[in-house]
Design goal:
The complex is a heterotrimer of chains A (280), B (259) and C (351). Chain B is α/β, with parallel strands linked by helices and 259 residues long. Chain B is built from 9 helices and 10 strands. Helix content of chain B is 41%, strand content 20%. The radius of gyration of chain B is 23 Å and the shape is elongated. Chain C folds into 2 domains: 227 residues, Rossmann fold; 113 residues, OB fold (Dihydrolipoamide Acetyltransferase, E2P) (Beta Barrel), CATH 2.40.50.100. In chain C, 24% of the residues lie in helices and 34% in strands. In chain C, a hairpin with a 4-residue loop joins strand 20 and strand 21. In chain C, helix 2 packs parallel to helix 4 and helix 3 crosses helix 4. Classes of the chains: A mainly alpha (280), B alpha/beta (259), C alpha+beta (351).
Chain lengths: 280, 259, 351
């Protein structure tokens, strides 16, 4: 549970938000060693990549026509996918956390499958559904809807892999928050939709926010399902990760520069949402 | 620093050292030579997979005690690995440009061309879109998939199409021939431009349609021994095996043409 | 009758029948696990009866026959508000927005809701906390705000589930006073295991034990003359009602009972109740001399065992005394006795 305080308590350090008088609880000293190694393991490759960047030409490399097209497409599709995840994922998490449907635990396991599935397999699965000869694709083709090789396909691929991140975070937050506030609100005359809007979602706001950030980040980094399902065409389906992979063939400097750009976008998004915090 | 803190610091240093040693070992690529025999490491373009597996089997049969290890990847990746000191004995590339990079760096001996490959149109079985020529690929509404110009098969495609004076509007420019072929076999694309050998390898999953303009971009496969090899003799023998009538027969069986 | 509940919940071993008249307060008195919360859950709409009828102001809230639901009104359409021992103020809303929640949820305008909230906050005497977040409130303040929030929703029925249980002893008198003041016209069901809550807040008491109502009646009657075993074990309090004289409670029979006044500032003539435990009462055959005590003359009516002690009842009082004392004083029915209790053992409450 999050604590909601309007003003920091007296004696609280402004920098860490912790009271300096409080002795931290049992953390074994040896834990710092693997913890430091763990931190290094994540940070070192990023730093190493930074050392490989051709800084003198960096601006030119990341502002080439193909790079700008890939970045714009990535931001646009990842944002759209995040909206898709919110629209489908919030109700799904609510049903999983609050519903009492038969077969609900099976549904939960199935929704989480994209988390463990290799993205390429996800792409194959999407092809079998929305592809020209797919389960739904054939009827859609009759209606004149073509999904493969379109930006829609990219959004579908990203949403497919990103949705579980939102559902998992939000469902956990909903379970932690419990139903007691909702019962109180109903007693005050609030209908289920009002309760959702004014009580449930504000209470799980931190979980919802981190789930949203995670799904955006996952959508931004999506590669395997996209290249399998959507193809790769500049400005239409070639997102930043696909551009990085392609540039690796012909222009390794550009590939490294774009990779760093991708890392920077991810860091900015995560930092921005973490700093805003659970205000309201 | 307290004694305890010093001890912690020593442990940290030791662990870090151990980790970097492990990382160093892991980075060495193919392991040391087998104790009971000789290992010959051949770096070959991915499109040569089936051909070189057969040639290597025959070579091992003719050279008891020799173990041929194939490292198969995209030509440009292999070049980068050799430039960084990967222990290769023989290198077979899918195009002359990449081989020339190593020649310029003096990392390989004189290359010899051993096969060629040309483009072919791949369509789903039965050719539902009725494609008959290169010109048909420019038809509006036709879903065409090609390789991106940044990769060798895409460069070949661009050369062919430019030579024929046609403007194509592909729905996707894929990373590799495999990706193009995948879209065609899945029925997502009406047609794709791939190599003859890819069509041959796909069996009855796709139909191949040859076209005259493919002569404009004949892809030549060169092979060479690596300068730093410990076994120049054996490496030379492997190159000869590829160039031998038996080796050429294997290649021809898989759709490759002679240089 | 405005609220009637007849319901069985076999899964919880509950089979209860309750009713509360308009504007009255019914206390459900019973130990933990007796079925009080189940009864409240049935009224609030968080639990379904297996069999039974629940009606409020002539409207059927729930009806079931043999596990089959034939009528059901969802919790948010019942106009039944529940206040539990934990105030459960919405942590993301200010005190004002918490209290305005009910009116807003019922479709009143922002302005009307804010006005209503202010009115209820002022009624609880906490108007100056309106801009605070719940985290910045003390336990007692939070519970009073929770009462204001519940009442601002203008419930037809208010359910209180052990509202004092989670609070410090020193803030409960204040909360009781707030409730006494605010529940005057409110139809209420109060679940509690504390006799004092029932005594001070309820018009009637229903004693719940083992999932059933085992006794019910006017508060003073049930608490002073309990018939059921449970009520007798926790209640059996001596209650003497009268008017405030400034230093004691003058009873109708002419005694002035001195004790510890919980509301010293009440005006003269206010209706008050003096409360003390039977164990605090000593019995004598003649007027004792010495320390100032409250003395009451009477005649022994009954003597019955109560644990290691014997409970001796006179016309108006109960005293728990040792068997030795009973033997020494020959306390048999019909014997005249003088009962004394120290002023320090007597609590005086406003009624």
């Amino acid at each position: 549970m999050t604590t909601w305080t309007s003003t920091p308590a007296l004696g609280t350090s402004r920098r860490t938000g912790r009271d300096p008088a409080v002795v931290p609880g049992g953390l074994p000293r040896w834990a710092f060693v693997p913890a430091a190694l763990g931190g290094l393991f994540v940070v070192l490759p990023l730093v190493a990549m930074g050392t490989r960047v051709d800084w003198t030409n960096y601006w030119g490399l990341i502002t080439s026509e193909s790079a700008r097209a890939a970045l714009a497409l990535s931001l646009q599709t990842a944002a759209t996918s995040t909206v898709v995840c919110l629209v489908l994922g919030i109700p799904l998490a609510l049903v999983l956390a609050r519903g009492r449907l038969p077969g609900q635990s099976l549904l939960r396991s199935l929704v989480l499958v994209p988390l463990v599935l290799p993205p390429v397999v996800g792409g194959v699965a999407l092809l079998s559904t929305f592809g020209r000869r797919g389960l739904l694709g054939e009827s859609m083709e009759v209606l004149g809807l073509q999904i493969a090789f379109s930006t829609t396909a990219v959004v579908l691929a990203q949403s497919f892999v990103a949705l579980p991140f939102l559902v998992v975070s939000l469902e956990g937050a909903l379970r932690t928050a419990g139903e007691r506030y909702e019962v109180v609100a109903a007693g005050l005359g609030a209908g289920p939709t009002t309760v959702l809007r004014r009580v449930t979602l504000p209470l799980v706001w931190p979980g919802l926010l981190s789930g949203t950030v995670l799904s955006f980040a996952r959508a931004l980094g999506e590669f395997g399902a996209t290249i399998t399902f959507a193809g790769s065409l500049q400005g239409v389906t070639r997102t930043l990760p696909l551009e990085v992979y392609l540039q690796r063939e012909s222009d390794p400097d550009a590939a490294v520069a774009l990779s760093l750009l991708l890392v920077a976008v991810a860091v900015v998004v995560i930092a921005a949402t973490h700093h805003r915090g659970p205000s309201r | 620093m307290t004694a305890r803190a010093r001890r912690t610091a020593r442990v940290t240093a030791a662990l870090l050292a151990a980790t970097s040693v492990a990382a160093g070992l892991a980075g060495c690529g193919p392991g040391p030579v087998a104790a009971d025999g000789t290992t010959l490491t051949v770096f070959a373009a991915a499109s040569l997979t089936e051909a070189f597996e057969q040639v290597a089997d025959d070579f091992e049969a003719d050279h008891p005690g020799v173990d041929v290890r194939l490292s198969l990847a995209g030509s440009s990746s292999l070049v980068a690995q050799i430039q960084q000191g990967a222990p290769a004995d023989v290198f077979a590339s899918a195009d002359t440009t990449t081989m020339d990079e190593l020649v310029a760096d003096d990392l390989v001996g004189t290359p010899q061309d051993f096969a060629t490959n040309t483009l072919q149109i791949a369509v789903p079985p039965g050719n539902p879109a009725g494609v008959a020529s290169l010109q048909d690929l420019a038809a509006p509404g036709l879903r065409l998939v090609v390789c991106a110009p940044q990769v060798p098969c895409g460069a070949a495609t661009a050369a062919t199409v430019d030579g024929a004076g046609i403007a194509l509007q592909p729905v996707s420019e894929e990373q590799s021939v495999t990706d193009v072929l995948g879209k065609v076999t899945a029925g997502e694309a009406d047609a794709g431009l791939v190599y003859v050998t890819d069509v041959a390898r796909a069996g009855d999953q796709v139909d191949g349609i040859p076209f005259a303009e493919s002569d404009a971009a004949v892809n030549t496969y060169p092979i060479a021994t690596v300068t730093d090899t410990d076994q120049p003799e054996l490496a030379r023998e492997f190159v000869d095996a590829v160039l031998s009538p038996e080796g050429q027969a294997v290649l021809a069986g898989l759709g490759f043409a002679a240089p | 009758m405005t609220f009637e509940l007849t319901a069985t919940v076999p899964s919880r071993g509950v089979d209860v029948r309750l009713d509360v008249a308009a504007g009255r307060t019914l206390a459900l008195l019973g130990p933990n696990g007796a079925g009080k919360s189940t009864a409240l859950g049935l009224a609030a709409g968080t639990l379904r009866p297996h069999d039974g009828d629940i009606t409020l102001d002539g409207r059927t809230l729930a009806r079931a026959r043999g596990g089959r639901r034939t009528a059901w009104v969802a919790a948010h359409r019942r106009r039944v508000a529940l206040l539990a021992q934990d105030p459960m103020l919405f942590p993301h809303l200010s005190v004002r927005d918490n209290v305005a929640f009910g009116p807003r949820a019922q479709g009143r305008s922002r302005r009307a809701a804010a006005t209503a909230a202010k009115g209820w906050l002022d009624a609880t005497g906490l108007g100056d906390l309106a801009d605070r977040r719940p985290a910045a409130l003390s336990g007692g303040q939070a519970q009073r705000i929770a009462i204001a929030r519940a009442l601002a929703a203008r419930p037809r029925l208010l359910l209180l589930d052990e509202p004092m249980a989670a609070l410090d002893v020193d803030v409960t008198p204040q909360l009781r006073q707030t409730l006494q003041h605010l529940l005057a016209e409110q139809t209420t069901v109060l679940a509690t295991h504390d006799v004092l809550d029932a005594l001070l807040l309820a018009d009637e008491v229903a004693v719940v034990d083992g999932g059933r109502v085992v006794e019910r009646g006017p508060t003073a009657e049930v608490l002073s003359r309990p018939r059921s075993a449970f009520a007798a074990s926790i209640a059996g309090l001596n209650l003497l009602t009268g008017t405030w004289t400034g230093d004691g409670v003058a009873t109708a029979t002419g005694e002035v009972v001195h004790g510890h006044a919980t509301h010293p500032e009440v005006p003269l003539g206010t209706a008050m109740t003096a409360v003390f435990r039977p164990a605090a009462v000593a019995l004598h055959l003649a007027d004792p001399h010495g320390s100032p005590r409250n003395t009451f003359r009477g005649t022994v009516r009954t003597v019955e065992p109560r644990g290691d002690l014997l409970r001796v009842r006179t016309e108006r009082l109960a005293a728990d005394v040792t068997p030795q004392a009973v033997a020494e004083l020959s306390l048999v029915p019909g014997r005249s006795v003088v009962a004394t209790v120290k002023a320090a053992e007597v609590d005086v409450y406003r009624r």
